[in-house]
Write a structure and sequence with these properties.
- Strands 1, 2, 3, 4, 5, 6 and 7 form a 7-stranded mixed β-sheet that branches.
- The two termini are 28 Å apart.
- This protein has one domain (10-200): Maf protein (Alpha-Beta Complex).
- The longest helix is centred in the first third of the chain and has 19 residues, at 55-73.
- Helices cover 37% and strands 24% of the residues.
- By secondary structure, it is of the alpha/beta class.
- It is built from 7 helices and 7 strands.
């Protein structure tokens, strides 16, 4: 995408396949330009500045950083930034970089509840114009070790591409016994709120 965009162009500042598919399936016209931000460095800074910072705030700050970075590169565009944080009690979990760590993450989540916080931010000309954070609670069933190994074999490298090591829209749904919250929020984007705000701003037909 060029460094400039017209005022009607919607840009998704995320490389997430799930977010792309949600917006496309909903009929939203957009282009993709993943943000160039150092997420681990931002998280580390946030914890240094405030050790008791909430998962909601972390997700919002990361989504804001993505939206602002791409918006600064694309003046005139309408930029959507998003991020998701998984909280297991007071601990925050990140994507597992390899299969072994994904296995350990799923063992830790097994039989327990965790919360996904999904933030979305709109930005124009480098300035935030709207933000929202949704949350959903998910409870994993106490699945067996053989099931876990079979799941990892079938899911393959996908377990390293999402926080928690699962995709609810795929085989990952078999890991759960209860879900409380919005489905789209779990996938990483509070889609209903996003669509409502886009309609309110005249970006979609109302």
């Amino acid at each position: 995408m060029p460094a400039t965009a017209n005022a009607h162009q919607i840009v998704l500042a995320s490389g997430s396949r799930a977010r792309r598919e949600m917006l496309a399936a909903a009929g939203v016209p957009f282009t993709v330009l993943p943000a160039d931000v150092d997420e681990p460095a931002i998280r580390d800074r946030l914890f240094r500045e405030n050790p008791s910072i909430t998962p909601q705030h972390i997700a919002e700050v990361l989504a804001t950083a993505k939206a602002e970075e791409v918006s600064a590169r694309c003046p005139g565009a309408f930029v959507i930034g998003a991020d998701q944080v998984l909280a297991l009690g007071v601990e925050l979990l990140s994507k597992a970089p390899n299969m072994e760590l994904a296995r350990e993450t799923l063992k830790r989540l097994r039989g327990r509840s965790h919360v996904l916080h999904s933030a979305v931010v709109f930005a124009e000309n480098g300035k935030v114009t709207w933000r929202h954070v949704g949350a959903a609670r998910l409870t994993m069933r106490n699945f067996s070790d053989p099931f876990l190994e079979d799941y990892l074999l079938r899911a393959g490298e996908k377990v390293t591409q999402s926080v928690g090591g699962y995709e609810l829209e795929g085989q990952g749904v078999q890991l759960f016994e209860r879900i409380d919250g919005d489905y789209f929020t779990i996938l990483g984007l509070p889609l209903l709120e996003v669509l409502a705000e886009l309609r309110g701003r005249g970006k979609l037909e109302a």
